[in-house]
Amino acid sequence: MDARVAIVTGAARGIGAAVATRLAQDGLAVALLDLDEESCAAPVATITAAGGKALAVGVDVSDSDAVDRAVQRVADELGAPTVLVNNAGILRDNLLFKMTNDDWDAVMNVHLRGTFLMSRAVQKFQTEAKWGRIVNLSSTSALGNRGQANYAAAKAGIQGFTKTLAIELGKFGITVNAIAPGFIATDMTAATAARVGADFEDFKKAAAMMIPVGRVGTPEDIAHTASFLAGEGAGFVSGQVIYVAGGPKD
Ligand code: NAP
């Protein structure tokens, strides 16, 4: 059988790059989608140096036509995509009274509209294949987080979207799940530290003190969970939100 083809969005760095690299290690051909094709050069080089197959595609996941073109390009160049990891994300944190319309719309567009557009484009190939895996990145912020009304609403919305797709697509052999990470050390959390004027190492130490396993998460922690959910053996796990946060969340 040909290798399965996966698409990972926001794959240039952070969690997306780790997920793409891990899925390639698992034997999948991987399309790395990000705003700028060139920005995926490093993870693509890592994957191909290890003998894997990778394709970088530039796309804004909130642009409907661009998403459809990008997914078709993956199908043409790598084969029909049947694994999708919706990971692209941005932050526009602010307390409600300071949150602008742009802050709200930008976060909704990338997280919620992007996840919707990508899933709709990829399900065509998954339903034809009668097999598929969709993994959506939510967050512990879905449970509420000061300064993140936009992000928390989008990440909670992703959980409802995930459960609904699981119900609609299950009969086609497609599972749909969400991973809700806690604090993961990436450029995103480094930017949050910078925004509040904290040194990133001190910021991580303070966060680790609140986490039962005593450390912050790594992109590989999330990649490991995505690998499980994308795998052949996870076919009876669907509509779930897995909190990967070093301790219990609900
Ligand atoms: P990151 O380091 O900021 O990486 C996000 C990637 O998404 C970047 O490469 C970014 O591209 C890309 N991106 C942004 N907007 C896009 C768009 N419209 N179309 C395509 N790509 C786009 O973030 P991360 O920490 O790895 O987070 C990845 C996901 O996990 C996000 O959904 C985030 O909300 C979620 N998450 C993260 C944490 C955490 O602690 N880090 C916790 C919970 C959930 P540019 O570089 O060009 O902007």
UniProtKB/TrEMBL annotation:
E.C. number: 1.1.1.100
Cited SUPFAM superfamilies: NAD(P)-binding Rossmann-fold domains (SSF51735)
Entry superkingdom: Bacteria
Domain named Ketoreductase: residues: 4-182
EC top class, as a word: oxidoreductase
Gene Ontology process terms (BP): fatty acid elongation
The entry's keywords: NADP, Oxidoreductase
InterPro entries on file: KR_dom, NAD(P)-bd_dom_sf, Sc_DH/Rdtase_CS, SDR_fam
Cross-referenced SMART domains: PKS_KR
UniProt GO molecular function: 3-oxoacyl-[acyl-carrier-protein] reductase (NADPH) activity
Any Pfam family hit: adh_short_C2
NCBIfam families reported in the protein's UniProt record: PRK12826.1-2
Similarity section: Belongs to the short-chain dehydrogenases/reductases (SDR) family.
Listed name of the protein: 3-oxoacyl-[acyl-carrier-protein] reductase
